[in-house]
Amino acid sequence: MKFRIEKDSMGEMKVPASAYFGAQTTRSVNNFPISGLCLPPEQITALALIKLACAKANMELGLLKKRQGNAIVKAAREIIDGALRDQFVVDIFQAGSGTSSNMNTNEVIANRAVEILGGKRGDRSLVHPNDHVNMGQSTNNVFPSSIRVASLPLLKNLIAEAKAFHKTLLKKSRQFDTVIKSGRTHLQDAVPIRMGQAFGAFARSIEKDIAMLKTKVDPLSELGVGGNAVGTGINTSPKFRKLIIKHLNKESGLKFTVAKNGIEATNSTMDMFNVSSASNLLATDVARICNDLRLMSSGPNTGFNEINLPPVEPGSSIMPGKINPTIAEAVNMVCLKVFGNQQTIGISAFSAQLELNVTMPVTGYALVESLKILANGVKVLSEKCVAGITVNKKQCEMYAMQSPSIATFLNPVIGYDRASAVVKKAIKEGKTIPEVVLEDKLMTKAELDKILDPKKLTSPNM
Fold first, then answer.
1. 48 and 105 in contact (C-beta within 8 Å)?
2. Can the peptide bond before residue 300 be classed as cis, meaning omega within 30 degrees of 0?
3. pTM of the full predicted structure?
4. What is the number of structural domains in the chain?
5. Residues 403, 433: Cα–Cα separation, whole Å
6. Which of 87, 138, 175, 198 has the fewest C-beta atoms under 10 angstroms from its C-beta?
7. Which residues are catalytic?
8. Residue 398 lies in a domain
9. Strand duo 257-258 + 222-223: pairing
């Protein structure tokens, strides 16, 4: 491999001749050979967007020469469009503020800008990674801002997918509204409900999760970029932050705002924790729904067999014809990963010390991953599983009417104690509740049929 020599504040470093990154990135690669996990592409895009917006703001303020600024903008835009992604090589387990990745970004943009100006990579006299690309910035505000810029569109996409899932569940609740089934509490037979009511309850849970996610959009949109080392904005114009936001919004099509308190935006990751918490609530409901779908579809001969999930692939390499609830299982694993990421983000949030949180890279990685995989998981669950569910009506009705718990409807007529005796006898002798009631002449068939009318078993009926 051919190398070139680049310098940083610590001296000379051998850098691969073909690399766009420079000396400080090379040091970081050597220092942190830990996981092989690098910044997610969404955060790389976010960093490039911020660098582009800062360059435009600095040119507008007359602090950055147009020739250098325009080259930086062009280089950043290439990265935004997907170029040079293999140059972002720093492990996410690095300096806790994200300095290594910020400098990785500065060096890649600087060296590409140098090429655009006709120079050779490593010529810091044309475009300097710190003085020009990082002008008016500090890792301490750029990196957390990049997590927010990366996460906001992912949060909005998650909300959109959750809304589509909610709509699918509502459609199923209407489709199955006439199907009566046995309720179950403690995994034991309970009074009947309608299958449509079960899906309606699922839908309401998701509706509440969506409402919670929506409340996280505005706080996540506050950016501390331009605040520099501790959020006070030293070495910048008072106009700098607003100009950054102006150009960032124009480039991204999103609506970011200047942080109301730059110091809080630098030392706190609570907004990220709140987004993760709301996502965790959604994941909890999604996982619970998946578990219920798996139970209701269990069988076909030795389980509940109340619903049929769409068959998407063979379920066994040895048992012919076996079909498993693989979509629900896959989405359950998504939810487990979200739960784990929530633990990481939460512990990271209270690991801040004084003016800086030093867990930024792992926080950003976990949050971006959770938002992305949960949105994809919800989409798959909605489109490839729930939308195609069919119901086994006869099986459901058989369970409902043979359940000992329908004796509950006899309470107002014969009382709790006598109804309990009916249940015990029915279970002991293997008979249905109606059979015991008629056998013991507790009421006539006409009276019993009126009480156990399926239409009256799932709503107020006194």
1. yes
2. yes
3. 0.95
4. 3
5. 8
6. 175
7. 316
8. no
9. parallel
